[in-house]
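G., the chain you wanted modeled:
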Amino acid sequence: MRAAGWGRICLITSISVKQPIPNLALSNTARAGLWAWAKTAAADLVGDGITLNLACPGTHATERARQGGLLGNGPVGDPDDFGKVVCFLCSEPARFLSGAALQVDGAATAGLL
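Predicted structure as tokens:
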């Protein structure tokens, strides 16, 4: 990517980066640490034309969510819509978006940051 002067890195994580999920303390901590690492790496890479972002899905209507009984009363997204967000983060128009954790959760996350 550096040799090409262009690249996109998109890490798929969860909304727990911005709002901890009850009973998942270790996962919440690891994901927050991943974002801290990503922010640092993004700053190191952006000068070479490489962006690094996190896509943070909330609940989406996947087979795993159905089987796990996770499709409750809150907002539920279409997996295709999440895929379109990831495609955008990997596109040329997203060239100045780097170090971000973009929640894709239908306003489920209560946090402001």
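The longest helix spans residues 25-45.

Shout if anything looks off.
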